[in-house]
Automatic annotation (TrEMBL):
<dbReference type="Pfam" id="PF02894">
    <property type="entry name" value="GFO_IDH_MocA_C"/>
</dbReference>
<dbReference type="InterPro" id="IPR004104">
    <property type="entry name" value="Gfo/Idh/MocA-like_OxRdtase_C"/>
</dbReference>
<dbReference type="GO" id="GO:0000166">
    <property type="term" value="F:nucleotide binding"/>
</dbReference>
<dbReference type="InterPro" id="IPR000683">
    <property type="entry name" value="Gfo/Idh/MocA-like_OxRdtase_N"/>
</dbReference>
<dbReference type="InterPro" id="IPR036291">
    <property type="entry name" value="NAD(P)-bd_dom_sf"/>
</dbReference>
<dbReference type="Pfam" id="PF01408">
    <property type="entry name" value="GFO_IDH_MocA"/>
</dbReference>
<feature type="domain" description="Gfo/Idh/MocA-like oxidoreductase C-terminal">
    <location>
        <begin position="136"/>
        <end position="352"/>
    </location>
</feature>
<comment type="similarity">
    <text>Belongs to the Gfo/Idh/MocA family.</text>
</comment>
<protein>
    <submittedName>
        <fullName>Gfo/Idh/MocA family oxidoreductase</fullName>
    </submittedName>
</protein>
<dbReference type="InterPro" id="IPR052515">
    <property type="entry name" value="Gfo/Idh/MocA_Oxidoreductase"/>
</dbReference>
<feature type="domain" description="Gfo/Idh/MocA-like oxidoreductase N-terminal">
    <location>
        <begin position="5"/>
        <end position="124"/>
    </location>
</feature>
Amino acid sequence: MNNKLKIGVIGAGSISDLHFASYVKEEQAELFAVCDLNRERAEGKAAKYNIPHIYTDYRELLANPEIDAVSICTWNNTHAELSIAALRAGKHVLVEKPLCKSVEEALQIQTAVQETGKTLQVGFVRRYDTNAQLVKHFIDNGQLGSIYYAKASCLRRLGNPGGWFSDVERSGGGPLIDIGVHVIDVCWYLMGRPKPVSVSGNTYRQLGNRANIKNLNFYKAADYDAEHNTVEDLANALIRFENGASLMIDVSFTLHAKKDEISVKLYGDKGGVELEPELTFVTEVLDTITNVSPQTNNKSIEINSAFQNEISHFVSCVRSGETPISPVEDGLNMMKILCGIYESAAKGQEIRL
Ligand SMILES: NC(=O)c1ccc[n+]([C@@H]2O[C@H](COP(=O)([O-])OP(=O)(O)OC[C@H]3O[C@@H](n4cnc5c(N)ncnc54)[C@H](O)[C@@H]3O)[C@@H](O)[C@H]2O)c1
């Protein structure tokens, strides 16, 4: 009997390839349908990945009773509508980050998950990287003691993807909601998901998208367009947690920086760790501060295998009924943090969550 999960992918742009390629390798799932507003794009992916059903209206895809689960890889402003419609149509959902654009939308998605009992996994892909899981294993086993501080940066000199990413109505914001979400999430997850109590943030629009720059490539939306840009270039924030721990971040789409930078660092009372840019633990050995480099396949995130792990986990949770390690509650919590930072920046004051 063929009891593979039948998967529909909604949104066939840039990131969808990592979903398609990962599902292809899943023995317990098969790519069954693809949907994009742009028919040609959907047809292209259908041909590339041998997908039998093509749609341009997601409602028609959801009306297909054979489909068990969907990946939602569309613009951020559609995540809530599509997730809720999919859940109510009886489908399980893997939704790309961010969960949605606002706390209100996140609460509505959470209600739909609770009422339908279907699986919803948020695509916080950094959690699924093997190095992040290794660090979690070390932290869970007390190797770093209690984590009281974390610090993360994701700075692009030139990296506004244009198109919908730079249209605040469709994206919800710039680098904070697009790439800040990843580094805030992985820190928060590794810190043990403490309750956030306040945020203080700043956003800046000083450089624009630097569309004039030549000789340097960067990630672009499928419908790249540099004309319209209503999002911030840079955001920074301090997030305080109920247990006294704090997290500092800064993220940019454009910045006069010497080079792009990614760093994710956590500090505990027994030791520290740098997950990015290169996995290293810091500890004390016989009164000597000692850096420890684990021998792992990769020093930094390996994005293809991280996506493969994310998709495998989704397929496995759908089949077993277990709750994913990145459930809707975590997506909701992230929206409280992100929206709180934008509110803090707009008001010029700290926001209590
Ligand atoms: N996990 C990651 O590392 C990562 C990386 C990049 C993007 N993303 C997320 O993935 C999502 C898509 O990003 P992208 O870079 O692929 O963008 P993209 O612009 O390349 O592709 C988005 C596609 O969605 C389609 N679309 C939009 N609304 C639709 C609808 N209602 N029905 C059907 N199709 C629709 C568009 O036509 C487009 O083809 C975003 O939420 C983004 O935040 C995640």
